[in-house]
Amino acid sequence: MGVQTATLTRIGSLTVHTTFVTGMLNKMAQLLSQAVFLNYDIHHGHDMRAERRKVGREARFIFSVWFCYLAGAALGTLMNSLWGPRALLIPVCIVTSAAFVDQARPLSIEEEQDQP
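The structure corresponding to this sequence follows.
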């Protein structure tokens, strides 16, 4: 999980927590709260539509990560029932491949350049 956390931390401008659900839950709650306040501002005459679209895109992305958690849990359960512990070879190969790709083209350098 440490390799996975270090390998994939950002997609575009969004920070992604792929190894713990609470970080993504926190981000989703922040986006939903922001959307509620933006809707309030729009209802009261402020032009915040562009910001609302941005928040909506981010919320859809975070929801898609949650959907991937659900799909992974379902697929993991199915594969465990079919292959037993050997099913763990699939995620190990995926994470190992991602680590090799990150060594060849590190995302951390791009992240550091994006930092102010």
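The radius of gyration is 18 Å.
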